[in-house]
Amino acid sequence: MAQNPMRDDPTPPPALARTSAARIAVNVDGVAHLDEVEPRLLLVHYLRDRLGRTGTPIGCDTGNCGACTVDLDGMSVKSCQVLAVQADGRRVTTIQGLAGPDGAWHPLQRAFHEQHALQCGYCTPGMIMAARDLLKDNPDPTPEEVRDALEGNLCRCTGYQNIVRAVLAAAAELRREGAPEPRGKAAGAPRASGQEAPA
Ligand code: FES
Ligand code: FES
């Protein structure tokens, strides 16, 4: 009887073979992480499921709602449209990294609270991260410019009026403070092996 050479071969066929893990070093909210991830893992899933940064929600997983927006090396990105491996060697800031070292809210966080710019709050982290990106380039935007900048972020609750008002209020506060956040690349190299290390 003819032998089937495939039968005793323990190597799984290519389609069933496990994808090999990739090693990444990423700084998230000031903390350095070294991890192994599947190459197909989305950044938003890495942040939420591996690092527990659940302040970044998933609204659609298709790049439409903006809820998952984070800052990647100074640019806002929808983290459901970025692979975790693409964050290798880079700095990610989420909504949970915006407060000051003393826990004081970022002016945008304060303004959203004070201007009643949220109801369910699901869109709020993404709105704030996208608005922060706008204010780096344009510290004194018009209402139309705010609306343009936030067009990729959907809110099902507020009607957007108070969101625009909040961004304008935060912009004014940042101008008064004289401390517009510069756009820049400041990725600190993770400096320890293991799950995480202080940045
Ligand atoms: S969850 Fe990423 S854009 Fe909606
Ligand atoms: S506050 Fe509910 S989706 Fe914006």
From TrEMBL:
Keyword set includes Iron-sulfur: yes
Composition bias, Basic and acidic residues: 175-184
Entry annotated with the keyword Cell wall biogenesis/degradation: no
GO molecular function: 2 iron, 2 sulfur cluster binding; metal ion binding; oxidoreductase activity
Top-level taxon of the source organism: Bacteria
Residue ranges of the region described as Disordered: 175-199
Domain (2Fe-2S ferredoxin-type): residue spans on this chain: 22-98
Entry keyword set: 2Fe-2S, Iron, Iron-sulfur, Metal-binding, Oxidoreductase
Gene3D superfamilies: 3.10.20.30, [2Fe-2S]-binding domain
Pfam families, sorted: Fer2, Fer2_2
Entries under InterPro entries matching the protein: 2Fe-2S-bd (IPR002888), 2Fe-2S-bd_dom_sf (IPR036884), 2Fe-2S_ferredoxin-like_sf (IPR036010), 2Fe-2S_ferredoxin-type (IPR001041), 2Fe2S_fd_BS (IPR006058), Beta-grasp_dom_sf (IPR012675), Diverse_Oxidoreductases (IPR051452)
PANTHER family per record: OXIDOREDUCTASE WITH IRON-SULFUR SUBUNIT
Name the UniProt record assigns to this protein: Carbon-monoxide dehydrogenase small subunit
